[in-house]
């Protein structure tokens, strides 16, 4: 059975709102959460870009069942992989069996801010990712570790806060080159619905057979299709950008300039817009038929609670998903707020 997740978009909501929405999503019956890990928002209108790892700590205390993944963390430039290894180990210790580390090669927008060079060459970025994941797994073995690689060094490093169950590493891939690496080094795949059939086939053929495959798809539930199109254009124009522009440009101002080059209708081709939940149900079914066992829904825009309610009432039941019963002796599960 397909699992359905809820996106925590750090760029558009405060950390406190994200923690609240995580609790509502768990109560509604979502199977997992995925939280973006950015230093800057895509566009200034988003207004937020809180530190994802602090927010994960809050989520660990406000939820009790739902799984949590970074979607995704880039362990290449802004973070050293040794720091990511420590952060993920701590998060997994706070959420036994519920945390998963999602990693990818990132984008210039977030990685240039500390003065490091984010390579424009995809093969170089993927080589860096291979080495970074190797370092993370090495440190998770425990004990004092040294590593001298082509891109990174660790010297007398040891993680003392190791969980009993290490988190899976889910690797992001947008095209076939990255999908090959994901199959090679990852425990699972995450894809952002650019080439879903090509990516999953390449991932499986490159060592990913039998591994979990997650795909993220954007939706904008609204009172009317036109209203939802306007919201999607205002809040998520980046989805209509072509080629590698989203990975290359360095500031929100550049993304705002690119927003002027696309139309609401072009954005709506990439985002399911409107009040009809059946379109979302059909999209989830289509992706599940491709072989994706986990589908992540990203509700675009400020109105998250109405979408969570819609998912609880209409979308999740279509896939046999119901909110779990309250735990005996545990906290009550009130269901999504109305």
Q: Which descriptors apply to this entry?
A:
single chain, about 350 residues, alpha/beta, TIM Barrel, eight-stranded parallel beta barrel, two-stranded antiparallel sheet, 11 strands, about 40% helix, globular
Explain what this protein looks like in three dimensions.
This protein starts with a strand and ends in a 23-residue tail after the last helix. The chain has 13 helices and eleven strands. By secondary structure, it is an alpha/beta fold. 47% of the residues are buried. Helices cover 41% and strands 17% of the residues. The longest helix is centred in the middle third of the chain and has 18 residues, at 122-139. The protein has one domain: TIM Barrel (Alpha-Beta Barrel), CATH 3.20.20.30. An eight-stranded parallel β-barrel has the order 1-2-3-4-7-8-9-11, surrounded by six helices. Strands 5-6 form a two-stranded antiparallel sheet.
Please list the strands of the largest sheet in the order they lie side by side.
Answer: 1-2-3-4-7-8-9-11
- Which homologous superfamily in CATH is the superfamily? Luciferase-like domain
Assign the structural class, choosing from mainly alpha, mainly beta, alpha/beta, alpha+beta, or little secondary structure.
Answer: alpha/beta
Note the run of SSEs as H and E: EHEHEHEHHEEEHEHEHHHHEHEH
Oligomer: single chain
What best-fitting shape do the alpha-carbon axes yield? globular
How many alpha or pi helices?
A: 13
Assign the CATH architecture.
Alpha-Beta Barrel
Number of structural units classed as domains: 1
How large a portion of the residues is in β-strands, by DSSP E?
Answer: 15-25%
Q: In CATH, what is the class?
A: Alpha Beta
Separation, N- and C-terminal Cα atoms: 28 Å
Largest sheet: 8 strands, parallel, barrel
Mean pLDDT: 95
Number of strand elements? 11
If you consult CATH, what is the topology?
A: TIM Barrel
Rg, Å, rounded: 19 Å
Poorly predicted runs of 5 or more residues:
326-334
Summarize the amount of helix as a percent range: 40-55%
